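Is this the right way to post structure tokens for a design question? Let me know if I should format differently. Anyway, here goes:
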């Protein structure tokens, strides 16, 4: 599941628009929401809308929009990205883009006649943000999110993940080397892709390496592909073989204790730092204390 922030600037400015504009904008919002949910992705609304639900609903009713009930139902049952102040407004695009960087959110959905964020791509301090202007642009991207039916090799798996989830995953050299040493058939390549995809979707948003409370969520998210488990290494194993699980992230050494189990003898060791998933080992089961 991929998450999109909804750029709500036009909603903030609805009092400035005529009724025909409002009807068009709200109908488009309903279509965008429907498309994202149909493909089992997530459209996140600003918590400012949630905190001012009654005001937002009144604007909808005044617009005489046919999609009123559908949009209100979506707002009631959706998730929100937080705003620190109830009175906070995005007065400049820099405010909005800065928030996206801080939240490690690189996908934004906007209405087609948006003028606040009018470009499809933005870069802030090397952080890339894609802005989808209207339903057609969003449909095109969502269609590209669907992975190929097969991968030619592990390099293609890693490349595809980095393209689909920019800023969210980094494959360390050791992971590439250990993966290349394995004989991986097409079915296994798909499993590796799905395992990492769900690690990004389920684990990464929590930005922590204490994942005990997420083990069941991850298992359920990967049930369709084989129900992969995640767990940390035992302290005995780390005492004896911690050096085999220690990798460098931007000049700092970290122990990649958490790992994804695919079958009996394949492990993916990872570490989460600054809203990014780092892969340190992707290959055969590493030695453990009981060996």
């Amino acid at each position: 599941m991929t998450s999109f922030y909804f750029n709500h600037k036009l909603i903030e400015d609805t009092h400035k628009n005529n009724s025909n504009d409002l009807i068009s904008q709200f109908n488009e919002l309903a279509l965008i929401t429907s498309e994202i949910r149909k493909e089992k992705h997530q459209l996140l609304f600003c918590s400012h809308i949630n905190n001012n639900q009654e005001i937002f609903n009144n604007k909808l009713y005044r617009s005489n929009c046919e999609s009123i009930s559908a949009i209100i139902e979506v707002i009631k049952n959706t998730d929100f990205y937080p705003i620190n102040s109830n009175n906070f407004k995005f007065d400049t695009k820099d405010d909005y883009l800065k928030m996206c960087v801080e939240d490690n959110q690189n996908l934004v959905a906007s209405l087609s006649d948006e003028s606040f964020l009018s470009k499809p791509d933005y870069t802030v301090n090397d952080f890339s943000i894609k802005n989808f202007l209207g339903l057609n642009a969003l449909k095109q991207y969502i269609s590209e999110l669907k992975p190929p039916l097969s991968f030619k090799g592990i390099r293609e798996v890693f490349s595809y993940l980095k393209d689909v989830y920019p800023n969210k995953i980094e494959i360390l050299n050791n992971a590439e080397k250990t993966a290349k040493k394995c004989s991986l058939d097409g079915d296994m390549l798909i499993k590796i892709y799905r395992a990492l995809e769900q690690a990004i979707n389920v684990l990464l948003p929590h930005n922590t390496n204490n994942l005990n409370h997420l083990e069941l969520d991850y298992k359920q998210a990967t049930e369709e592909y084989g129900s992969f488990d995640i767990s940390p290494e035992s302290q005995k194993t780390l005492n004896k073989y911690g050096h085999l699980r220690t990798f460098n992230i931007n000049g700092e050494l970290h122990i990649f204790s958490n790992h994804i189990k695919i079958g009996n003898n394949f492990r993916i060791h990872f570490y989460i730092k600054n809203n990014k998933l780092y892969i340190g080992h992707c290959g055969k089961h590493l030695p453990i204390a009981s060996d």
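Format looks fine. Someone answered above. Worth noting: The first helix runs from residue 9 to 12. The chain has twelve helices and 13 strands.
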